[in-house]
Amino acid sequence: MLPFNLGIPEVLVILGVALVIFGPKRLPELGRNLGKGLKNFKESLSSAASEVKAGLTEEEDNGHKELK
Fold first, then answer.
1. Rounded distance, CA 11 to CA 8, Å?
2. What is the pLDDT of residues 3-45, one digit of tens each?
3. Would 22 disulfide with which of 26, 38, 57, 67, CB 3.0-4.6 Å?
4. pLDDT at position 46, please?
5. How far apart are CA 52 and CA 54, in angstroms?
6. Distance from C-alpha of 41 to C-alpha of 48, rounded to nearest angstrom
């Protein structure tokens, strides 16, 4: 099963409509740009998650130092 409860026929219709709208020359470029955008989004999420984790670890360490 594909995301958003889409089946194979629905995906084929969407790809067909995109092909008609954008044309065969522009479709690979759009796919590349979409992939790059998703990659950048994932990297920024990972970076933000690691910063939050580092901040929480730092706060824990500071809390233990204050208790001693």
1. 5
2. 778 888 998 999 899 999 999 899 899 889 999 999 999 999 9
3. 26
4. 93
5. 5
6. 11
Domain locations along the chain: 3-67
Length of the chain: 68
Question: If 0-12 CB within 10 Å is exposed, 13-18 middle and 19+ buried, where does residue 63 land?
Answer: exposed
**Tokens encoding 47:** 């970076």
**Does the domain at residues 3-67 carry the CATH identifier 1.10.3210?**
no
Whole-structure pTM value:
0.59
Terminal Cα-to-Cα distance of the chain (whole angstroms): 54
